[in-house]
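Summary: Need help interpreting a holo structure output

Steps to reproduce:
1. Submit the protein chain below together with the SMILES for zinc ion.
2. Request a joint structure prediction with the ligand placed.
3. Inspect the structure token block that comes back.

Expected: a single structure record containing both the chain and the bound molecule.
Actual: see attached output.

Input attached:
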Amino acid sequence: MRNIKIDTTSIKYRCLRCRRVFTAKKLSRERQLKCPECGFPVVEKARRDMAIHIKAR
Ligand SMILES: [Zn+2]
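--- attached output ---
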């Protein structure tokens, strides 16, 4: 069995005000979840834009 490390610092967040995307690593400096750019306290988790291609064949 292999342990799969989940790198939480690679989780991305998006500010709901200025729409900037930043990583949790940047956020960890702050106690609060807020945008490092504009300070807006509402951010959403951005999914990794890994394109999943499903071939329709
Ligand atoms: Zn912002």
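--- end attachment ---

Reviewer comment: The mean pLDDT is 78. The CA atoms of residues 8 and 38 lie 23 Å apart.
Status: needs-info
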